[in-house]
Amino acid sequence: MSRRTPLAVLTAALPLVVACGGSETKTPPPAASTAPVTTAAAPSGATGSITGKVTYAGAVPPAEKVKTSADPKCAAMHKDGLEKQTIMVKDGGLAHAFVYLKSGVSGSYPAPATPVLLDQEGCMYHPHVIGVQVGQDITIRNSDDTLHNIHPRPTVNAEFNIGQARKGMEATRKFDKEEVMIPVGCDVHPWMRSYISVVSHPFFAVTGEDGSYEIKNVPPGEYEVEVYHEKLKTQTGKASVKAGEPAKVDLAFAG
Ligand SMILES: [Cu+2]
């Protein structure tokens, strides 16, 4: 008996609730459902980012002393001597490492119209590691008052070699295939070395002095992240990216 009464009351009350709720709910739902859709469609909320630190736990070899005496102009720019350090570590973080999404990226990403600058200054390349997209222009500049030649040695892409005899000279080149860490050298100054990484999408970064990196605007998804360092080679990790959230992927070289 006691069970039937509430049921009967409920049944009787139900049409009222539905009728009442029906007219009430018509206004709120559109407002409630439009709001999240608008937020999700906004560019800032539709993608996430991948951040992390590349570390190296091994011994750091001492810097190599570079003989610049063969070119007095280079020697004059480095009166206290020039040193070459291929493994650069600060607070356990590894600099100059190229981090990119190796797999999981879908869709096509046209090359940006803005070129990436590779400068030759003080008889060194600046920056030491650059990343570009397939087909993106690389502006190669000589900021020194001496002869440099830029000579990348790719294995997949076409090799080229350009001489730049005077300060202020510029050339533009691009690579049409994916290839990570193409070594670049100068045949006049054997210590000069840089690396160009060519990727088919914009999801890459070069680690800073402390080994940290950030890859922005990544669409939600599952990715394989690879780091490539000129000496220590590769390590991989996995990233699960959600819209509006940073995914953290640390990559470690044991040494
Ligand atoms: Cu040179």
Textual characterization of the structure:
This protein has 255 residues and is an alpha+beta fold. The protein folds into two domains: 38 residues, no CATH class; 211 residues, Cupredoxins -  blue copper proteins (Immunoglobulin-like, Sandwich), CATH 2.60.40. Helix content is 18%, strand content 41%. The protein is built from four helices and 21 strands. The protein has a five-stranded mixed β-sheet, with no helix packed on it. Strands 1, 17, 20 and 21 form a four-stranded mixed β-sheet that branches. A four-stranded antiparallel β-sheet has the order 16-6-18-19, with no helix packed on it. The radius of gyration is 28 Å and the shape is globular. The termini are far apart. The N terminus is likely disordered. Copper (II) ion binds next to loops.
Summarize the structure.
This protein is of the alpha+beta class.
β-sheet strand percentage: 35-45%
Helix tally? 4
The CATH topology name of the largest domain reads Immunoglobulin-like
Q: How many angstroms separate the termini?
A: 78 Å
